[in-house]
From TrEMBL:
HAMAP family: tRNA_aden_deaminase
Catalytic residue positions: E54
Record note on cofactor: Binds 1 zinc ion per subunit.
Residues the entry annotates as binding Zn(2+): H52, C82, C85
Pfam families: dCMP_cyt_deam_1
Its EC number(s): 3.5.4.33
Domain CMP/dCMP-type deaminase as annotated: residue spans: 1-111
Biological classification of the source: Bacteria, Pseudomonadati, Bacteroidota, Chitinophagia, Chitinophagales
Protein's UniProt name: tRNA-specific adenosine deaminase
Organism this protein belongs to: Terrimonas rubra
Family: Belongs to the cytidine and deoxycytidylate deaminase family. ADAT2 subfamily.
GO MF term list: tRNA-specific adenosine-34 deaminase activity
Catalytic reaction list: adenosine(34) in tRNA + H2O + H(+) = inosine(34) in tRNA + NH4(+)
């Protein structure tokens, strides 16, 4: 399995969010080449500003494996995590974070500038299926204007 394959799975979650009129961001948590958790934005449905795709997927993964740490996991998310989600990823000790599109407005990099908010041992990969991830976001906001 490749990063592109798992990002495609995260994109399927983002599409679900799009169809539910949520900001279309999706995430999957992978361990040993298997998806153990999925999530997509649910902030509108749950009336909860913390119900981001990453938070939903991480919470599901913690529950699935019965641990608050995921040191052997990879998080795939269609858009760069915000600062809140970056903090959750840090505390979960995820070993690899992969995202598609950057987020200049709300992404963690805008606020943290030079210091990564992720665990120091975490591997970071960006730009996987960037065009597809960005296109879904653009379509969502174009539809709303």
């Amino acid at each position: 399995m490749t990063d592109e394959y798992f990002m495609q799975q995260a994109l399927l979650e983002a599409q679900l969010a799009f169809e539910e009129e949520e900001i279309p961001i999706g995430a999957v948590v992978v361990m040993q080449n298997r998806i153990i958790a999925r999530g997509h934005n649910m902030t509108e449905r749950l009336n909860d500003p913390t119900a981001h795709a990453e938070m939903i997927a991480l919470t599901s993964a913690f529950s699935k494996i019965g641990s608050k740490y995921l040191p052997d996991a990879t998080l795939y998310v269609t858009v760069e995590p915000c600062l809140m989600c970056a903090g959750a990823v840090y505390w979960s000790k995820v070993s690899k974070i992969v995202w598609g599109a950057g987020d200049e407005k709300n992404g963690h990099q805008r606020l943290t500038q030079q210091r990564s908010p992720f665990h120091p041992k975490a591997e970071i990969i960006t730009g996987v299926l960037q065009e597809e991830c960005a296109a879904l976001m653009k379509a969502f906001f174009k539809q709303r204007r």
